[in-house]
Amino acid sequence: MDIWRCGAIRAPLHSLLDGALSTCTVHWLPELGPGEFLADPFGWPAPEGGLHVFAERYDYRDRHGYIERYTLGADGRLLEARTVLRERWHLSYPQVFEGEGATWMLPEAHHSGGLTLYRGDLQLESWHAAVRIELDAVPVDATPLWHEDRWWLLYSPATSRATRFGHLHAAWARQLEGPWHPHPGNPVRIDRASARPGGTALNLGNRILLPVQDCTRTYGGATRPLWITRLDETGFAAECGAPLPLPVWAGRYRDGMHTLSACGDWTLIDVKRVDRTGRGWWYDLRRLLKPSA
After folding, report:
1. Distance, CA of 11 to CA of 21 (rounded, Å)
2. 91: number of CA atoms within 13 Å, CB side?
3. Is the distance from CB of 16 to CB of 6 less than 8 angstroms?
4. Which helix (H) or strand (E) holds 281?
5. Whether this model's pTM surpasses 0.70
C-alpha cells in the first residue's frame, strides 16, 4: 500500500535539478490518518508571498480521491485546508494554470471516461466543469503547456497498464475548448522509465522541461527530467536525464517520488513509503464485504 506525503520548497524548480534538492528545506503538508494520504501537489500563488497547494486526498477505505487546497504562508506555515473539488469518480493530479482570461484546473479523471477542464472562481474555492476535452485516448496525468502560440497536452493513454506507465502522447489546440489535434507520431515516446508525466511542463530557453515518472521498478519509483527539444505539429524529440536521488530529508518516505511541480519561486514534491502491514488488504476485504446500498 503506497502512502504519499507532499512538501513545498522555496526554490524554483529548474534550480533543483543539479543536486540542490538535497540541501533544501521542505515545508511538509500534514500526514493523514491510517490508510489516507496526500499526493500530486500543484501550486498557485497566495496573498503576501504564500502558496495555495492543490493536492489529491485519497482514502484506501473507498479508493476514491478528491481535491483539497492547502494554503501556506510565506514562511511555509499551514494556514488553512479545505476541500475544493469532489466528483463521483476518482480525481488526482490537479494542475492549476492561467489562460484565456481565467484560472483553470485540469485534474486526472480517467475513471470518468474522459478529461474535463474546470474553471475557478476568484477565490479558487469553487470550480465548475467548463470544457470536455476529446483526445485520441482517455488520458492519464494530462499536462498542459502553452508553446509556440498554441496549447499542448502531454499525457499517457489509460488504455492498458503498459500505456499508462510507458507511453507518452501529445495533442495541440489553438484554444482550450478545442478542437484538439492528436500528434501524428503518437505515441511520441515509449519508455517505462521516462514517459508518464509527473509535474509542471516549463519552457526553459530552447527546451521544454517535463518531469516524468520512472516506473521501471515500481509505480512512481522516481522522477526524471525529460528535456523536449522539438514539439510541433509533425515532430517530437526529447532526451531524458537521470532519476533525481531522494535526499535524507525524505525520512521514511524513501520508496519513490512521482511529482515535481513549479509555482514561481516554489517547487512542490511528493514522496512515498510502502505500508507492508497488510492494512491495505484488510481495507479491500471490508469494502468487498460491505452490503450494497
Report:
1. 9
2. 23
3. no
4. helix 279-289
5. yes
End-to-end distance of the chain based on CA atoms, in angstroms? 27
- pLDDT band for position 19 (50/70/90)? confident
CB 212 within 8 A of CB 231: no
Percent of the chain with pLDDT over 70: 98
Task: Extract the C-alpha cell encoding 59.
Answer: 482514502
* Nearest by Cα to 266 from 5, 15, 31: 15
Determine phi and psi for 82, rounding to 5 degrees: -155, 150
Per residue in 167-191, pLDDT tens? 999 999 999 999 999 999 999 999 9
For residue 124, give every residue at least 6 positions away whose Cβ sits within 8 Å of its Cβ, in sequence order, or none: 44, 52, 69, 84, 96, 103
Query: What CA–CA distance (Å, rounded) separates 116 from 232?
Result: 24
The CA angle 121-127-130, to the nearest 5 degrees, is 100
- The whole-angstrom separation of Cα 120 and Cα 130 is 10
**How far is Cα 268 from Cα 6, in angstroms, rounded to an integer?**
7
Question: Residue 220 in contact with residue 272, Cβ under 8 Å?
Answer: yes
Q: Other CB atoms closer than 10 Å to residue 186's CB: what's the count?
A: 18
Buried b (16+ CB within 10 A) or exposed e, 196-206: bbbbbbbeeee
**99-118: per-residue pLDDT in tens?**
999 999 999 999 999 999 99
Mean pLDDT for the stretch of residues 138-165: 97
Please give the Cα distance from 123 to 37 (Å, whole number): 25
Measure the CA–CA gap between 272 and 95, rounded to whole angstroms: 20
